[in-house]
Amino acid sequence: MTDATRSDSRRGGGSEIDPADVDLRVALGDKLALRNPIVTGSGTFASGQEVDRFFDVRRLGAVVVKSVTVEPRRGLPTPRMAETAAGMLNAIGLQNPGIDAWLAHDLPWLNSHRVPTIVSIAGNTTAEYRHLAERLRDAPGVVAIEANISCPNVDDRDIVFACREEATHEAITQVARVSSVPVFAKLTPDVTDISLIAGAAHEAGATGVSVINTLLGMAIDTETRRPKLAAITGGLSGPAIKPIAVRAVHQIHEAHPQLPIIGMGGVRSVEDVVELVLAGASAVAVGTATFTNPLAALEILEGLPSWLAEHGYATLRQLRGAWRR
To answer: 0.85 exceeded by the pTM?
Structure first.
């Protein structure tokens, strides 16, 4: 193979493409279309207002808000965050104002700015998930629900919902039955076969899945011999988990090729987005990178058309699941 042929095999082929002509639109199932594939990672962008002073958040495909629960939560004791060699640990404890206050105070701002909003919901019983979905029925501006089922199930010995197919199916069933918008199940990577969990969520009515949530981790201060987090363990995010995210997206896409996937985990660059799409993602969330660079999601979005054009692709959709052996 010549160098020219080898180069062309890595590209989309055809005539030169103007970045301005690249089509970034993505469809996540039959009922959800986004203007572009870049969304925010829940818990890293609050409800959009805090980051809007850095850039117009309407430019993103959607804002995925911080997880909301039935009742207000104060969160876990401090320290809640700890830096690691390639990321960070956090144990926030789903601090939030509760669904009633969120609907009254946060959603109106998103609506007034016409921001496509995906609401992350979290609960400790299937009844709580159902109640949250009911409260969001026909809420203006809400385009989808992300069911954060990486939460302890108090009806099942506090085993995380997303660690068991049956519990996943039960929780998503309750949400999907009453939701007026598409439902995405946010899955933990702390399982043996994530494709089985994704299948259970889809069977229960989920439009798609969001993967991956953080991995459970721990760090100890060697001087004090105490955990760096007050909660002892926490969720690991950042660049360290990107290869795990790519693997999880790939496994799910191979098992369920038609299932829409929002990929996430350690995304910091255009290349990271492309890698997750090659593995099978339709859209990609930028999360922890926002803590060090509030413009991360915007910069990635702005760089994506040029990367695609330079590689001969008129759309991002052409690359979905197109990795090569």
So the answer is: yes
Q: Under DSSP, is residue 77 helix (H, G, I), strand (E, B) or coil?
A: coil
**Three-class SS state of 249:** helix
Query: Parallel, antiparallel, or unpaired: how do β-strands 261-264 and 38-40 relate?
Result: unpaired
Which range marks the domain in which residue 130 is found? Answer: 3-75+95-215+238-319
Q: What is the pLDDT of residues 286-317, one digit of tens each?
A: 999 999 999 999 999 999 999 999 999 999 99
The SS3 of residue 247 is helix
Query: Does the residue 305 lie in any domain?
Result: yes
Angle at 231 between CA 225 and CA 234, to 5 degrees: 95
Nearest C-alpha neighbor of 183 from the set 204, 212, 200: 204
Please give the helix or strand (H or E) that residue 33 lies within, else none: strand 33-34
d(CA 155, CA 166): 13
Give the Cα separation of 94 and 213 in Å (integer): 13
Query: Would you please indicate which residues are annotated as catalytic (active-site) residues?
Result: 151
